[in-house]
Automatic annotation (TrEMBL), chain B:
Membrane topology, as annotated: Multi-pass membrane protein
Record family assignment: Belongs to the binding-protein-dependent transport system permease family.
Name this polypeptide is given: Phosphonate ABC transporter
Alphabetized SUPFAM superfamilies for the sequence: MetI-like
Lineage: Bacteria, Bacillati, Cyanobacteriota, Cyanophyceae, Synechococcales
Naturally occurring in which organism (per UniProt): Synechococcus lacustris str. Tous
Length: 288, 524
C-alpha cells in the first residue's frame, strides 16, 4: 500500500485495529524492529489488534493522522504540533524521559572543521557560514527546526551555506553518514541518535566530530486520536497511556523497546510544553 | 539523396548549451563525496543478495508494476472516451454541434497541466493513505494527455468513409465506429504501448515520494548510503524495464497481431485482479467524504505575494537547459563513438540506467559532489530525459534506410560525416518535433527536482505542501499550470511549423505519426 516502506497489509477499512506509526527519522530496519515489538506489547496489554504502518515521509505522518488513517503516532516536536493543530481532539499521551529537555548536536567532518574554534556562544556559529551544511528531514525538529532557529540566533541564515542552500539528508543516520563521508562538511543531528551510534561503534571518530550541543528544547511525543474511547471502549485512551508509561526495563521485551527508543521510560507530557516549538515553527514558516 | 548536412546541424546546435554548463562546473564541484560516488559505482557489481532483501525488492517491483498497470488501463479508458467526445466530428455527428468538443478539449488541458507527482500529493491530502491515490495520480493527467493525442488523430483521419456510411443511412455511432475505428487502431496500439513504459517510470517516481512501490526502497537505501541494497532494487528494476521495453517494441512493430493481440489484452485484463489484490485497492474509499482543504485557508490574498519573476525565471531556465542537454546528448555521443560501433552497447546500457533512475535520486547522488543549485537539478533532469529521448533516437536511426550512408562510405566520405549526412539528416525533423514535446514534459517535471536547492516553482510547491501552507499552495499551482499550458502551446506551434515546413519541402504528406521515427509516439 502507498506510503509504506515495507510490505504489510493495510487496515484502513478495519475500525477495530489500532494503527500506530512514527515519523521515519532513522533507518527503516530499526524502526520496523522497534515498532514490531511495540505492536506486540500493546496488543497483549490492550487486547486489540495493533498494526504498525511504516511511512517514509514526515509530512505523510501528519496527513495520515489528520485524515484519521493513523490512531497513535510517535511524532517529533514540530510534526506533533502540526498534527494536533489540524486534528481536533488529538491528545498528547506521553514522551520519553529525555524529551522534555532534548538537544541537537552539530557535527563536522574532521578535514573541514579543523580551523573552527570551539563554539561557546551563538555568535560562534558564524564560523559555519560558507560550509556545506545538511539538515535531516525538512520537518524534523532536532534535525532542522531547532538547529535552524539557533543558527538564526547566531546570525546565520540558511542561504549563508555553500551553494546558497542547506541539504536535507532525510534522516539522522543519513546526516551522520554524509558528514562522515565528506559529502557535507557540517550537519545537525538528534543527540540521542548520535549517542546511540557512538555507543554502538557505528561512527568513525577519526572522520567526524561533535562541534556543539544546542540548548535544550522539548521534542518527540506520542499523539493519539481523540475518538479512541468511542471506537475501542470507555477508558481506552488512559489504558493506552498507562501501557506506554508503564514500560519497564525489568521485562525483557519492554527493556528491548525502551533501549531501541533510547529511553529509560515514558512519562506523561503536558501539551503546553510544546508552545515554544509552535512559536518557532510559526516563526520559520513551518506552521501557518 | 540530399547531401547537405543542414538539418543534422540543427540537431547538434543545442550542444552549445554545454558551454555555460561546463563553465559553471568548476565553481559548483566540491568533490567531498567522490569516494561515495565510487562506492556507488562499485556496488553495481555487488548487489546484496540477502534473501529478505531480494524478496522485498521483488515485492516493491510488483507493487510498482501493479500501479503502472492499473493507472495505464484507467488512463487509456479515460483517454479513449474523452477523445471521442472532444472530437468535433463525433459531436457533430451525434448532436449536430461542435462546441461540446471544443469545450471538453479546453477543460482537459487542466488535469494535463500538473505533473503526476503533484496530483499524488494533492490526492493524498484529499483521500488519505490509500493505494488508489497513486493509481489515480497517474491516470488523471495521463488520461487527459491520451485524450488529446487520440482526438488529434481522429481529426486527422480521412472523413469520407464516415460521411459515405452516414449518407447511406447508417446510425451515427455505428458509422463512426466502423469508418474511423479500424484506421485509428494502429496508432492507438503503438501510442498505448509507449504510455505503459511512461506509466512504469511514473509509478517508480511516485514511490520515491512515498506513494508505494520500489521507489521508496530505492530512496531509503540511497539515503542511508546502503549502495549494495540500492543496486538490488536497481537491477531488479532494470530487468523489468528492459523486458517490458522489448515486449512493447515487439507490440509496436506490429509483430503482435490479430489473435495474439487479443490473447495479450486478455492476459493484461486477467492480471488486473491479482494486481488489485496486491495493492489492496479499495475503490469504495473514493466514495467516503473527501477531506477537503479548509477553504478559508486556501483562498487568502497574502499567498499571492510571491517573487514570481524569479520563481518563473529559474523554472524556465531549468527547463530550457535541461531540455537542450537531454535533446543533444545522444546524437552527440553517437557521433563521437561512431568509429567504434561496439560502444553503442554501452550507450544503450547507460540509457537504460538513465531511464530507470528517478531524477530526484540522481540529484541526491549528484549532491555528494556538487553544491546545491541549478546545476545538479539540470543534470538530473537532463540525464533522465536523455535516456528517454536517446532510446527513441536510436530506434529511429535503425529504421532509416542504410543505403545512402553505405553509398557515402563507398564514395570515401568519413564515417562521422556519412552518419551526419545520411541518417541524422533523415531523422532530424521528426526528432526535433519530438524534442519540442519533451521540453514540455520537462517543464512539468521540474517540480520533482524542486528539493535540491533550486529556487523554482517546484521547490515552493513542495515546501508549501510540507508546511501545510494551503494559502500558498493554490497560487503556485495556478501559476505553474498556466506556465505549463503556455509551454504546451509553444511546443505545439513549433512542432507544427517544423512538420509543416518538412511537408512543404517534399518530406512526404503522410499524417504526423508517420513522420516521427518508428517508435516515437505521435504528437502528445
Amino acid at each position: 500500500m502507498p506510503l509504506q516502506a515495507q510490505q504489510s497489509t493495510p487496515a484502513i477499512a478495519a475500525k477495530k485495529i489500532l494503527r500506530i506509526s512514527a515519523v521515519p527519522d532513522q533507518n527503516p530496519e530499526k524502526l520496523n524492529r522497534l515498532y514490531g515489538l511495540l505492536a506486540e506489547e500493546l496488543e497483549q496489554k490492550l487486547g486489540v489488534p495493533v498494526k504498525y504502518v511504516p511511512l517514509i515521509d514526515y509530512t505523510a505522518a501528519v496527513t495520515g493522522f489528520r485524515n484519521g488513517d493513523l490512531d497513535l503516532v510517535w511524532f517529533g516536536g514540530l510534526t506533533g504540533v502540526q498534527a494536533r493543530l489540524q486534528t481536533p481532539g488529538a491528545q498528547v499521551l506521553a514522551q520519553r524521559d529525555v524529551d522534555a529537555a532534548f538537544h541537537s548536536i552539530f557535527i563536522g567532518n574532521v578535514n573541514s572543521v579543523a580551523a573552527i574554534k570551539p563554539i561557546r556562544t551563538f555568535n560562534d556559529l558564524q564560523q559555519l557560514k560558507g560550509k556545506r551544511f545538511t539538515f535531516g528531514s525538512e520537518s524534523s525538529t532536532s534535525g532542522r527546526l531547532m538547529p535552524q532557529y539557533f543558527l538564526a540566533k547566531g546570525g546565520v541564515k540558511i542561504t549563508d551555506f555553500a551553494g546558497g542552500a542547506p541539504g536535507f539528508s532525510g534522516s539522522h543516520d543519513a546526516t551522520i553518514a554524509l558528514v562522515q563521508s565528506g559529502a557535507y562538511e557540517v550537519g545537525a543531528v538528534n543527540e540521542q541518535v548520535w549517542q546511540t551510534n557512538l555507543r554502538k561503534g557505528n561512527i568513525d571518530r577519526t572522520k567526524v566530530v561533535a562541534l556543539w550541543r544546542t540548548p535544550p528544547y522539548p521534542d518527540y511525543h506520542w499523539v493519539a486520536q481523540g475518538n479512541l474511547n468511542k471506537r475501542f471502549g470507555p477508558g481506552f485512551s488512559s489504558k493506552l497511556q498507562k501501557a506506554l508509561i508503564q514500560l519497564r526495563p525489568s521485562n525483557p521485551r519492554q527493556q528491548q523497546i525502551l533501549e531501541l527508543f533510547g529511553a529509560r521510560q515514558f512519562v506523561e507530557a503536558p501539551a503546553s510544553q510544546y508552545g515554544q516549538i509552535e512559536a518557532i515553527g510559526r516563526n520559520l514558516g513551518k506552521i501557518r | 539523396m540530399r547531401v547537405q548536412a543542414a538539418p543534422a546541424l540543427g540537431l547538434l546546435l543545442p550542444a552549445l548549451v554545454f558551454l555555460p554548463l561546463v563553465a559553471l562546473l568548476p565553481g559548483a564541484v566540491h568533490g567531498g563525496g567522490w569516494p561515495l560516488i565510487a562506492a556507488f559505482g562499485m556496488a553495481a557489481l555487488q548487489p546484496s543478495f540477502t534473501p529478505a532483501l531480494v524478496a522485498n525488492a521483488f515485492h516493491g517491483i510488483a507493487i510498482t508494476l501493479a500501479i503502472a498497470l492499473w493507472s495505464w488501463l484507467l488512463s487509456m479508458a479515460i483517454g479513449l472516451i474523452a477523445a471521442v467526445f472532444s472530437s468535433p466530428t463525433v459531436t457533430t455527428a451525434l448532436w449536430g454541434c461542435r462546441w461540446p468538443a471544443h469545450w471538453l478539449r479546453r477543460l482537459l488541458a487542466i488535469p494535463r497541466s500538473l505533473h503526476e507527482l503533484l496530483w499524488g500529493l494533492i490526492l493524498l491530502q484529499l483521500i488519505g493513505l490509500h493505494p488508489a491515490v497513486a493509481v489515480l495520480a497517474i491516470a488523471i493527467p495521463y488520461g487527459a494527455l491520451v485524450a488529446r493525442v487520440f482526438s488529434d488523430q481522429l481529426e486527422s483521419l480521412d472523413q469520407k468513409p464516415f460521411q459515405a456510411l452516414q449518407a447511406a443511412g447508417v446510425a451515427a455511432p455505428a458509422a463512426l465506429f466502423s469508418a474511423l475505428g479500424p484506421s485509428l487502431l494502429p496508432g492507438l496500439l503503438s501510442y498505448g504501448g509507449y504510455r505503459f513504459e511512461c506509466a512504469l517510470r511514473s509509478a517508480t517516481l511516485l514511490g520515491v515520494f512515498g506513494l508505494g512501490g520500489i521507489g521508496a526502497d530505492l530512496r531509503l537505501s540511497l539515503q542511508s548510503l546502503q549502495f549494495n541494497e540500492a543496486w538490488t532494487s536497481l537491477w531488479a528494476l532494470a530487468l523489468v524495464m528492459f523486458s517490458l521495453e522489448q515486449l512493447i517494441a515487439l507490440w509496436r512493430a506490429r509483430c503482435v497481431q490479430g489473435r495474439h493481440l487479443l490473447i495479450l489484452l486478455g492476459c493484461l485484463l486477467l492480471l488486473l485482479f491479482p494486481a488489485a489484490n496486491l495493492l489492496d485497492l479499495q475503490w469504495q474509499v473514493l466514495l467516503n467524504p473527501w477531506r477537503l482543504l479548509p477553504a478559508d485557508q486556501l483562498f487568502q490574498l497574502q499567498g499571492w505575494w510571491q517573487p514570481w519573476p524569479q520563481l518563473i525565471g529559474s523554472t524556465v531556465l531549468l527547463t530550457i537547459t535541461a531540455a537542450l542537454a537531454a535533446f543533444v546528448a545522444t546524437p552527440l555521443l553517437l557521433l563521437l563513438i561512431c568509429p567504434w560501433p561496439w560502444l553503442q552497447l554501452l550507450l544503450r546500457a547507460f540509457g537504460l540506467f538513465a531511464r530507470l533512475m528517478p531524477p530526484p535520486l540522481t540529484a541526491l547522488l549528484l549532491l555528494f559532489v556538487l553544491k546545491p543549485g541549478l546545476l545538479p537539478a539540470v543534470i538530473a533532469l537532463a540525464f533522465h530525459n536523455a535516456g528517454i529521448l536517446g532510446r527513441l533516437f536510436l530506434e529511429g536511426l535503425e529504421s532509416q534506410d542504410p543505403r545512402p550512408e553505405q553509398a557515402l562510405w563507398a564514395a570515401g566520405v568519413p564515417r562521422r560525416r556519412a552518419l551526419l549526412m545520411a541518417r541524422f539528416n533523415g531523422l532530424a525533423t521528426s526528432y526535433m518535433a519530438y524534442g519540442a514535446y519533451r521540453a514540455d514534459v520537462i517543464l512539468r517535471e521540474t517540480v520533482v527536482v524542486g528539493l535540491v536547492g533550486v529556487g523554482g516553482l517546484g521547490a515552493v510547491l513542495l515546501e508549501a505542501l510540507s508546511s501545510f501552507a494551503w494559502a500558498e499552495l493554490l497560487p503556485v499551482l495556478v501559476v505553474y499550470a498556466l506556465l505549463t499550458l503556455l509551454g504546451e502551446e509553444l511546443a505545439d506551434r513549433y512542432r507544427r511549423s517544423l512538420l509543416f515546413n518538412h511537408t512543404q519541402l517534399g518530406g512526404g504528406s503522410t499524417p504526423q505519426l508517420e513522420l516521427l521515427p518508428r517508435g516515437v509516439p505521435g504528437p502528445a
